[in-house]
Amino acid sequence: MTLDTQRKIESHSLQSKFLNEERNIKVFVPPNYDPAVPLPIVYCHDGLEFFTHGRVATIANQLMLDGEIPPFLIAGIAVNLNKRRDDYALDGARHGAYQRFVIEECLPMLDGLYNVDDHQRLMAGISLGAVASLGFMLAYPQYFHTLILFSGAYFPDVQAYIRETSELSRLYAYMVVGDEETQAKTPSGGVFNFYQYNEDMRDILFDKGAQVEYRVGHGNHIWGFWQKELPDALRWLGKNIK
Question: What keywords is this UniProt entry annotated with (predicted)?
């Protein structure tokens, strides 16, 4: 049998009744995908950037071919940049609607297109997308409890919110922050100490009983840094797929 080593990405579109707009979703299909075998799926916020800037499909494909990680699907949900904070922030005006879009529209659509393991849905996000991932874990623990969190925008109000939650022993998280993120600039023009925010959130999650692997890498609050960190994050994910 000839092995299929080519990277495979499929594109889908979905008209959301909750967001009242169309969203695109890219799905990485692992090498030698067998529709008869259920696979885990990783949902990514800022999803198209995970594919273009993060090169997640290329990296995952090679790691799978090398036998370093098991096969899984990766779904990148396109962001609406004009509504990013409204969708991703825990207090965002559309946060609840965005969650319903993912849970009630994205999940059923992709479950119908691919053989998804019902017990293996995972999530990844960068900056405010990491906050959104925590929000999904809190609201829908039956679906999401294993997360990749890059340079989370854990502002004081987010930290306070997580402190008020009950114990989080069900959470498995891989956290990464850059050593140059002490004065990180964001596209909105703000300058924030994401390094300290992530140190603080790590301690909060530990105190709540979460299983956390925490890494400080060399870099700033940009995709060039997160792309370099993706291989190790995916290796961790592969070890935590049950």
Answer: Hydrolase
